[in-house]
Amino acid sequence: MVTILSIVPYKIFPAKVGGQKGIALFNEYLAKETSLVCVSVKSNDPLQAAGYTLLNVLADSPSRYINPFYFFTIQKIIRRYKTTHLLLEHPYYGWLGILLKWFTGVKLIIHSHNIESLRWKTLGKWWWPVLWQYEKLTHRVADYNFFIQDDDRNLAIKDFKLDAGKCTTITYGIEWDIAPAKEERNRCKVIIQQQHHIDNRQTILLFNGTLDYPPNLNALKIIQEKINPLLLASGFAYKIIICGRGLPAVLNDLKEFADKNIIYAGFTDDITIYFKGADIFINPVVDGGGIKTKLVEAIGYGTAAISTKTGSTGITGADAGELLRITDDDDWEGFAAEITRKFQSPPSGVPGAFFKKFYWGNIAKKAAAFIHQ
């Protein structure tokens, strides 16, 4: 019998942003397919772990990543729960996973959310080559390697010299497997129009993300400085709504954009209303790694989306059909043109292939089957 011990080295509850949801929901759905226990930081609430046991073992301080005594603590947990597989989120605990594999005989699974070293490279960190070598070693020792999208998997197989048979794509997912009805989307649109005093002749454009994360902050600046001026000059009738927490103080006052069709809604308790009610989700992201979780969610709600090539990584035209249009990075004239052109006819809906790939239930079954093979 397969029993997985998942190590989650940071706070994921309450799961509000994409990275937190990605781990919390993956564990929840994977626990429906096989026995799973999670070791995590003390700040996580065990009662929020749905369908599996969460043990508050790790400290919340940065020193947790280098504490050698965790080897003995987790070794005891492995024996207590008769663990067969050890699942690491990200490669940072690679040293611990490798030691536990060697001394307990567990199979080691690395769940990669990006090629972390390359993500830090795009963010300008000088030490990324050191992480590259560490990340490479961790993946090479692992028995199974889960990557968030195909480009990462293919790159790792080539540059880390991995056995392709030990690698698979386990993407970010959504919890629903059918798009909301047109009536539900219309209801949400009316709520947005009333709350933000938007005329029903104006197209509602949405951007959402954690705004203190550099790639999202950069995208926000692009909206303000590149895309919005082009839209203003075009005479197109629209409003751009910005949702997300963590806006840096330097950009905290957006009053200067109030008369320029940009509305800052901040963090919202129910972002699904905005995803369902928006006409177009815009995703002008040009850096960072992995898959853009907000784009997956928007398309899953049946919302048309326009994205840069980098921002659409992990989502193909075959996945999203008519709902997704992709422009070249930094082609802001082309991006704005796609918005003003809108969609000449209403998109035909979310393709079945999208839910087959991105529904958490299907993702968890794929992961479990790969482990059991």
Question: Could you please describe the fold and organization of this structure?
Answer:
There is one protein chain. Helices cover 40% and strands 18% of the residues. By secondary structure, it is α/β, with parallel strands linked by helices. The chain has two domains: 3-174 and 357-372, 3-Layer(aba) Sandwich (Rossmann fold), CATH 3.40.50; 182-349, 3-Layer(aba) Sandwich (Rossmann fold). The chain has a seven-stranded parallel sheet, with helices on both faces. α1 crosses α14, α2 packs across α3 (94-104) and α3 runs parallel beside α5 (128-141). The longest helix is centred in the middle third of the chain and has 21 residues, at 214-234.
List the helices and strands and how they pair.
Elements: E1 3-8, H1 18-30, E2 35-41, E3 53-58, H2 70-80, E4 85-89, H3 94-104, E5 107-111, H4 116-122, H5 128-141, E6 144-147, H6 150-159, E7 167-169, H7 182-196, E8 203-208, H8 214-234, E9 238-243, E10 262-266, H9 272-277, E11 280-283, H10 293-300, E12 304-308, H11 317-320, E13 324-327, H12 332-341, H13 352-358, H14 360-372
Parallel strand pairs: 1-2, 1-4, 2-3, 4-5, 5-6, 6-7, 8-9, 8-11, 9-10, 11-12, 12-13
Helix pairs in contact: 1-14, 2-3, 3-5, 4-5, 8-12
